[in-house]
TrEMBL record:
<feature type="signal peptide">
    <location>
        <begin position="1"/>
        <end position="28"/>
    </location>
</feature>
<feature type="region of interest" description="Disordered">
    <location>
        <begin position="65"/>
        <end position="99"/>
    </location>
</feature>
<dbReference type="InterPro" id="IPR007049">
    <property type="entry name" value="Carb-sel_porin_OprB"/>
</dbReference>
<protein>
    <submittedName>
        <fullName>Iron uptake porin</fullName>
    </submittedName>
</protein>
<dbReference type="InterPro" id="IPR051465">
    <property type="entry name" value="Cell_Envelope_Struct_Comp"/>
</dbReference>
<dbReference type="InterPro" id="IPR038673">
    <property type="entry name" value="OprB_sf"/>
</dbReference>
<dbReference type="GO" id="GO:0008643">
    <property type="term" value="P:carbohydrate transport"/>
</dbReference>
<dbReference type="GO" id="GO:0015288">
    <property type="term" value="F:porin activity"/>
</dbReference>
<feature type="coiled-coil region">
    <location>
        <begin position="210"/>
        <end position="237"/>
    </location>
</feature>
<dbReference type="Pfam" id="PF04966">
    <property type="entry name" value="OprB"/>
</dbReference>
<keyword id="KW-0175">Coiled coil</keyword>
<dbReference type="GO" id="GO:0016020">
    <property type="term" value="C:membrane"/>
</dbReference>
<dbReference type="Pfam" id="PF00395">
    <property type="entry name" value="SLH"/>
</dbReference>
<dbReference type="InterPro" id="IPR047684">
    <property type="entry name" value="Por_som-like"/>
</dbReference>
<comment type="similarity">
    <text>Belongs to the OprB family.</text>
</comment>
<dbReference type="InterPro" id="IPR001119">
    <property type="entry name" value="SLH_dom"/>
</dbReference>
<feature type="compositionally biased region" description="Low complexity">
    <location>
        <begin position="70"/>
        <end position="97"/>
    </location>
</feature>
Amino acid sequence: MSTMFWNALKLSPALLGASLLFVSSTQAQGSVPSQAAALNNSQVAVTVEPIAEALTQLPQSTVALSNSDQVTTTTSQTVTTEETTSALTATETSSSLNPTNNLLAQQVPAANTTEVLEQINQYNNPGGESLDQVTNVSQLSDVSPGDWAYEALRSLVERYGCIAGYPDGTFRGNRATTRYEFAAGLNACLQQVERLIAASVEGFVTREDLETLQRLVQEFEVELATLGTRVDDLEGRVAFLEDHQFSTTTKLNGEVIFAISDLFGEEDNVLNADFDDNTVFQDRVRLNFDTSFTGKDRLRTRLQARNVATFEALSGNGLTREGRLGFEGDEGNDVQLDILGYRFPVGPAVVQIYANGAGLDDLATTVNPLDSSGSGSISRFGQRNPIYRIGGNGAGAGITFTPSGPFRVDLGYLSNEAPNPSDAQGGGGSGIFNGNYSAIAQVTFQPFKALRLAATYVHSYDETSLGHGTGSLASQINPDGDIGVVGNSYGVEASIAFSPQLVLSGWAGYTDAIVLGTGGADVWNYGATLAINDFGTEGSTLGFVVGMEPKLTGSSVAVGNLLPGDRRRDPDTGLHVEGFYKLKVSDNIAITPGVIWLTAPGHDEDNDDIFVGTIRTTFTF
């Protein structure tokens, strides 16, 4: 289409001349097409509905042509995504099935490729707002009315409705229009007139308008020729991207972690074992397929493979559950469905439905800026308050209310036995409501941008333990036999940004655990994190974590078997001390060396300190 059109454009003066001759001949013979309503002297009455057909059908999403040449097109539909979306590369995809509206800015060339792409990007709609039809060129306030061509084009635009402009009446630059921009508007009118002539629509074009067009074409001949070359180049690049796109509705993004890790420690007083482990090289791979059907919703399908085995000292059969790596998990690198969830807006609220793999941290904000297993803290404990981990991952739903003002309310419910239909008393699961579950209610208060405060409540039930997977073994509340443990957990979280480069966060958590028919226990934890952003280089982060992982602070006599010798509490207080430095190598690669120091592991000073070191390399795409 584009080749045929531009060949026609080069012959526009000849075409206009022929059109004038045709009109004169028609008038002289007193004949008009059967669709014409009337003749008025030397003019044919014009009754034309405005047509705004795009010169170039560009895709609807951001298309990265190179590092410096970026084209963005939008429609009236706004696409909302949770994560920061980078410009698409040649291997990425368009996010829409529909072509764009005709934008004057799409047709604007420049003296070189970089200028035209920057100009198109500048005049495009960065906020995704709808573009209304402008049929009066005086609405475009930055077009200077002082030149004869302004009045000529204004008349053509109003007569034939051939320019789509911006609702605010500007070219997004607050400056006088360039000759190239003016030529783009002229070109739109040329297309409209040529379509009317070719279609022999009722009324045809007046002789005066054809003469005006011919004069304008001669005046802007160079700009029109340049415009054709530039748009041809863009069409070729866009055609390549469309041919190689992944999907029109789905975007693929991924993360790969390589980690070299080791643990160093002496003997403990429980197992009398030396916990020096071998150095390991482990990995985790995640692929997210994010699909949007309305532009405001998101269906996420995540595939995951990993082989990050737990060090023996930090396992359930070891000394403690403290110090575990944040990206830990071992399925032998088998590919599994990790998360399957759909979220969509309902008025001022956002509803989330998960069929698999969701945690309470997916249903509520954790406030901590280091809450990322790939780019934040290297430990599980450093990511968030451990009460968000109670109940494990599963299926369920949540809703987030964000009314006007500084408050946010999160509610959610999850079950890790949701797909199991068997009777709980028969030794299996018991569906969504009668098996293991965890429910969360949280209110977040943000009086100003730099400060966030949250109050959290988690109610849970598990057939075997409390199940947060951090802290001392006793704090798991794992009594002998499948008795059933109910948890009522309370947390407070806070984060304050003294500057974009310095963010301090912290939390405290308490769980009142009830072993059904037996007794109760108390579990406490607290922690603080410090993030120093842009440390050394832009995008790099120096981070610190200090706190007490979950500790059994007291229990009734009946549950004394949680500890050797029927003790009712952890004897001492051990600290989790962590430091790491995320070095941003490029936009897609970060290397994070870090170390975790556990004092009095298992909250027992008779145990020698443990050190866990890792070098985490994260690739994102």
